[in-house]
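## Example pair
The file below holds two records. Each record gives the amino-acid sequence first, followed by its structure token line.
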Amino acid sequence: MKIIPCPSSPLLARRVAEAAGIEIGGAVFKKFPDGELYVRVMEKEGVVVGSINSNEDLVALIFALDVLENAKAVVPYMGYARQDKVFQEGEAVSIKIVAEMLESRADEVVTVNIHSSDAASHFSKLKNLDAMPLVGEYFAGKDVVMISPDKGSMERVKTAAKHAGCEWDYMEKRRIDATTVEITPKTIDVEGRDVVIVDDIISTGGTVAETARILYGLGAKSVSAACVHAVLAENAAIKLFNAGIKDIISTDTVECAFSRISVAELIAENI
């Protein structure tokens, strides 16, 4: 069995192969002039590694899996996972459809920090790995405080902070009067502190940017952002820097300039 890199994750696939002691398999991905994708895999079985950060990524991944007789799918960033239930009548539950496509072609699906337990519930052969300890270890020995932008990400930040050996908190909304809402960390005073906002995904960056502005207003010395999946859509990095974010740190589930932490060994241990 060999590692088959998809175009979305070539570097991570190489790192996984090295960490697992598995060879890279032969594969060709190209696009016809009309936009159709062509996929050829020169192996009978393999571990296909490819994040879903676009519709094209999904098609390439499905085509590669379909060619193999025995396949595992490693999808470091599971796109479509935020559409995990019907929010408005008539909506497609996208992750349910993606799960069906993957699991009909792969013996096992491995991902990293899928967005929610609801998204995970649509799979029957899913192994969901947690990279938050790795995010925490990156900051070990640094005098920082970790902040979740909301209560929903509290457990993620708690895990990262445990491995960083630092304090943590989450932003809490408190109504002052009929028209005023105050958003502050629940217990920690951030004045004069180096703060790291931690979340699973940074997509458009709006929530993180607003959180940074609030933290600076409360006297934070510096504010950085750390995440597992740096999707960074719609020029999100510029938005974050404009909000005063000092640095962006992410894993390589989505390969980009901010990928300082690799999940390769974590994946290699689980395939």
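Second record, same layout:
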Amino acid sequence: MSQSGRSSRTIVVDGVPLPDVLDETMIRGVVHGFYDEIRRDDLLAPIFRDRIEPDKWPQHLAKMCDFWSATLLRTSRYDGRPLPPHLAIAGLGVAHFRRWLKLFRTTVRRICPPEVATLFMDRALRIAHSFRLAIAFNRGETTIGIEPIAEKDL
């Protein structure tokens, strides 16, 4: 690892070399900034408040930093399963995912240069769609007609 918190090898995401500016420090800034927004949001804050005790937030944030590090920097730090906790949230729907994506977009645009914000958003949009499909399937609902949320529609 270099002093920037990133390996010296070239990382390729979706066929494009990762910008050098994206490192662990930027990921930490995105994760912490995003969850600061979540914890103030009228729609999403209650969901997190009901599931994460105040003294457990540092562990949750560390886990989310590990997740994004593994996702974008190709580290092997995250070994969890992100879907099951979301399956357990009754009533989780498209409005929640739209808000999550909107807050995430605001955060990455504030913290990251445009090409890095785009990388984060592309991945977040895919994750949201995958989770929406899995939640519907888990609930016995049809997945036909579940369209991906487009960034332009946020």
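Notes on the second record: Residues 12-153 form a domain with the Globin-like fold (CATH 1.10.490.10). The CA atoms of residues 60 and 79 lie 13 Å apart.
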